Amino acid sequence: MARAREGSDTELQKKLDHEIRMREGACKLLAACSQREQTLEATKSLLVCNSRILSYMGELQRRKEAQVLGKTGRRPSDSGLPTERSPCRGRVCISDLRIPLMWKDTEYFKNKGDLHRWAVFLLLQLGEDIQDTEMILVDRTLTDISFQNTLLFTEAGPDFELRLELYGACMEEEGALAGAPKRLATKLSSSLGRSSGRRVRASLESAGGSGSGPILLPTPAVGGPRYHLLAHTTLTLAAVQDGFRTHGLTLASHEENPAWLPLYGSVCCRLVAQPLCMTQPTASGSLRVQQAGERQDWMRVHGVLKGTNLFCYRRSEDADTGEEPLFTIAINKESRVQAGEVDQATGRPYTLSISNKYGEDKMTHILQTESRGALQSWMEALWQLFFDMSQWKQCCDEIMKIESPASRKPAQALAKQGSLYHEMVLSEPGAPGGPGEGLLLQDNAISAEIRALLSSYYSDR
Length: 461
Prior knowledge:
Blueprint: H1 2-32, H2 36-71, E1 90-100, H3 105-108, E2 118-126, E3 129-132, E4 136-138, E5 144-147, E6 151-156, E7 162-170, H4 171-191, H5 194-209, E8 228-235, E9 244-248, E10 250-251, E11 266-275, H6 276-279, E12 281-291, E13 299-306, E14 309-313, H7 316-321, E15 327-330, E16 336-339, E17 351-358, E18 361-368, H8 372-392, H9 420-427, H10 448-459
Antiparallel strand pairs: 1-5, 1-6, 1-11, 2-3, 2-4, 2-7, 7-8, 8-10, 9-11, 12-13, 12-18, 13-14, 14-15, 16-17, 17-18
Helix pairs in contact: 1-2, 1-10, 4-5
């Protein structure tokens, strides 16, 4: 037990060290970024890394406190009470994430007003595990924010709490700041006269293009855009359903906030869970089975308890090769299991019975084990299964399908979720400083070191 705990702590420490290195890489990337998409991705990476570092540090602290309490003798087992039964772990998967938007009529239908754009992404946390979605662009041409990611959490208990946080950055915040020097130069050139204004404008533009920053508008001390928490919610076992479902969102921003986005106040997604007891065998061994009330002989089988079924095979090899079982005994929340009485006269002392009701009919199977220890092992496995079913509830009714998450690759540009106007701008070959500058991630603008950092970041996701 101590070695397993030390190994788990070491693995968590490795994760912490990795995120610290990734954070340093994100800082370097942010300092080297020259285009808007690069800056947004680097800032997002920095936010995710910081969240993971805080989560891992908190988990390490909790484990150290538990070890100190254990060494001082303050353990629950010292009270003399029996050890409480713990439910099995499981996997939780969330996909098909959509967040509806609520635009004003004048903005969406009449297409009036300034066309603002936001860069948004979701941060999801279950326990110490933190994952993020891709970043996409949003404007008033969209009716909802759709994330295509499938996120899988492999270490969850039935009491899990999955927190969703929506972050957003308004693209106009930095755009307005960057365009201020040119607007100021234009205004000065028109007010000072043709010749004087031309000289002032040239001096301002040359200072701005030299890399030293504008004369009248110094570069902010903290570079990069700022993400704001727009909304959040927490999903639990009660929200699990093998289908699309809507959940409430708590809005964290108001209309006066620069990063405010007109959210409808709900999130739609598919949240499923797979307890390990439903996907992995919990007991197996040689059994003799007889259906109660029938005069048939006892049948020797190889039993495998998996999920809500006891599969009975002719041989143990059949279970490994995927052969169809001879028959299956259902075990659900309504089943009744009872250990048989010791009957030395019949020569079958180690038996248990499993009873199921099918309408008005009742069917009972009697199982005989080879020893008292085997009988205790089967009874313990069955009681543990009943406990797991009581904790995981609807997740044990049937196995919910979990899709394997696709490996994330570094995108060459932000997801194309914008208006037709922006798509036209992106497709036009623009001159340096033109409207198309900064909207595409150009390879020649990133050094080999930055490309390596990006590749390392996405390969570890």
